[in-house]
């Protein structure tokens, strides 16, 4: 009996210590603005709920925490895992930028005070942060494709500008880069120590947050960061469609999808009541509040553990946030069921997937250039690619999300090549449309490159209506 009581006591103490450890680990790694006028940072209000609430449950708080992607412990990942007789040939990475300041503000409320200067000894921290700051400050003469050469190489404003990358966003991608370096460079020797500029392909949209995110990942990834070998190409479209952006049918699908979203909002009486209540608090019309996209600003408050806005009429609170976030979850579920977004995605993602496949085919033929490609992009880039690949259960792209395409060669049969698809470190290859039935028809442990090639070159169009055999014809069909 005595032994049993001691065991139960030790078990209870272990549970308490685990809870405290997780809480401290989470709370202490959230960046805060430096207190002004000598004020103590302890007086600052907090809104963050207990991080162990709703564990594993796809509720609004759990989903919001996943979306924030607050960097803390080292992440486990499945990148670089393959049978021993396979050799890694090339890697292509598509990322969403890291944590940023909101793109919209809630009218008549105070902007959240977040410091966008990089401070090496402030959390969240990364061992390479100080060296990254130093290296970026010396890269003012760097030449990128216009207009990228006019963008700052790292965030540097005491009060963040709209859409600006935060220190959290930089650390998220330093962490991504370090993780990929440990796997691809140190373990698989993808890049030699004397790597050359033509072994990289780098492309980003014309936003400072995407360029800076790409630079942070590269700084964590490369064996040595040499400005003479770094050249980013500019991509004007968030879909990375280059010279293939005109697609009438894609735009028709998008309009129908937007109308579906509108009808779903109308049916949600709780959402409408919440918007009305928030509009009353900030003293503006409900339509103006909705147009200001309040969830973008509220997510910033949430991710940075800053109290939601208050006025003389009251405070926006966690109840309002949960209703709006829950509506987003319901919208994503209906979006998968209605398939309109899938039509948009198949056409919207085809150009970048086609580039990816073409680069893989060149690598499989023995080409040694562009063996590592990086596209630094947005949620509106990743989301259609995930949908087009058939990854319907994939969560909405979090800050610093990464989607990776690996190409492998079978050393025992050098003419055979295989692909792996990984999303945020999870191997999702056999959840894709092009390889979900692979195990039923083949004993091979990895997905053949031909499956992805046939999907991009043919099956993506078949999935639309079956009558088109190329991107141009598919884009100019009439939507049903």
Automatic annotation (TrEMBL):
One Gene Ontology MF term: acid phosphatase activity
Keyword S-adenosyl-L-methionine: no
Record InterPro entries: Acid_Pase_AS (IPR033379), His_Pase_clade-2 (IPR000560), His_PPase_superfam (IPR029033), Histidine_acid_phosphatase (IPR050645)
Highest taxon, organism lineage: Eukaryota
Name of the top EC class for this enzyme: hydrolase
Membrane topology: Single-pass type II membrane protein
PROSITE patterns: HIS_ACID_PHOSPHAT_1
Reactions accelerated catalytically: 3-O-[beta-D-GlcA-(1->3)-beta-D-Gal-(1->3)-beta-D-Gal-(1->4)-beta-D-2-O-P-Xyl]-L-seryl-[protein] + H2O = 3-O-(beta-D-GlcA-(1->3)-beta-D-Gal-(1->3)-beta-D-Gal-(1->4)-beta-D-Xyl)-L-seryl-[protein] + phosphate
General function of this protein: Responsible for the 2-O-dephosphorylation of xylose in the glycosaminoglycan-protein linkage region of proteoglycans thereby regulating the amount of mature glycosaminoglycan (GAG) chains. Sulfated glycosaminoglycans (GAGs), including heparan sulfate and chondroitin sulfate, are synthesized on the so-called common GAG-protein linkage region (GlcUAbeta1-3Galbeta1-3Galbeta1-4Xylbeta1-O-Ser) of core proteins, which is formed by the stepwise addition of monosaccharide residues by the respective specific glycosyltransferases.
Protein name as annotated: 2-phosphoxylose phosphatase 1
Native source species: Cavia porcellus (Guinea pig)
Annotated gene: PXYLP1
């Amino acid at each position: 009996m005595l032994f049993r009581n001691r065991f139960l006591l030790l078990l209870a103490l272990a549970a308490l210590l685990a809870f405290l450890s997780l809480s401290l680990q989470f709370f202490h790694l959230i960046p805060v603005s430096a207190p002004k006028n000598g004020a103590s940072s302890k007086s600052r209000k907090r809104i963050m709920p207990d991080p162990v609430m709703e564990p594993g449950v796809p509720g609004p708080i759990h989903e919001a925490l996943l979306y924030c992607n607050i960097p803390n412990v080292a992440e486990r990942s499945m990148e670089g895992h393959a049978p021993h007789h396979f050799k890694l040939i090339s890697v292509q990475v598509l990322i969403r930028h890291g944590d940023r300041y909101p793109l919209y503000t809630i009218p008549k409320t105070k902007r959240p005070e977040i410091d966008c200067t990089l401070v090496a000894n402030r959390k969240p921290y990364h061992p390479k942060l100080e060296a990254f700051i130093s290296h970026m400050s010396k890269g003012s003469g760097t030449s990128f494709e216009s207009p990228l050469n006019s963008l700052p190489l790292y965030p540097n404003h005491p009060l963040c500008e709209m859409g600006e990358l935060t220190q959290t966003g930089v650390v998220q991608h330093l962490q991504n880069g370090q993780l990929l370096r440990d796997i691809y460079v140190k373990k698989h020797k993808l890049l030699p120590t004397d790597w050359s500029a033509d072994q990289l392909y780098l492309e980003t949209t014309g936003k400072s947050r995407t360029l800076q995110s790409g630079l942070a990942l590269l700084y964590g990834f490369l064996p040595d960061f040499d400005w003479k070998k770094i050249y980013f190409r500019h991509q004007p479209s968030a879909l990375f469609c280059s010279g293939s952006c005109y697609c009438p049918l894609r735009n028709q699908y998008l309009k129908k999808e937007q109308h579906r979203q509108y009808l779903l909002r109308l049916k949600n009486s709780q959402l409408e009541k919440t918007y009305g209540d928030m509009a009353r608090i900030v003293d503006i019309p409900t339509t103006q509040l909705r147009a200001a996209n309040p969830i973008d600003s509220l997510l910033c408050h949430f991710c940075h553990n800053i109290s939601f806005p208050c006025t003389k009429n009251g405070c926006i609170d966690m109840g309002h946030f949960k209703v709006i976030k829950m509506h987003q979850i319901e919208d994503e579920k209906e979006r998968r069921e209605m398939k309109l977004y899938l039509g948009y995605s198949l056409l919207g993602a085809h150009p970048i997937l086609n580039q990816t496949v073409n680069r893989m085919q060149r690598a499989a033929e023995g080409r040694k250039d562009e063996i590592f490609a990086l596209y630094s992009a947005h949620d509106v880039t990743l989301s259609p690619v995930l949908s087009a690949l058939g990854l319907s259960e994939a969560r909405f792209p979090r800050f610093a999300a990464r989607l990776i395409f690996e190409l492998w060669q079978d050393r025992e049969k050098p003419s055979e090549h295989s692909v792996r698809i990984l999303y945020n470190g999870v191997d999702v290859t056999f959840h894709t449309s092009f390889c979900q039935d692979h195990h039923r028809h083949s004993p091979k442990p990895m997905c053949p490159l031909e499956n992805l090639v046939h999907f991009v070159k043919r099956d993506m169009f078949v999935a639309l209506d079956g009558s088109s055999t190329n991107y141009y014809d598919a884009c100019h069909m009439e939507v049903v």
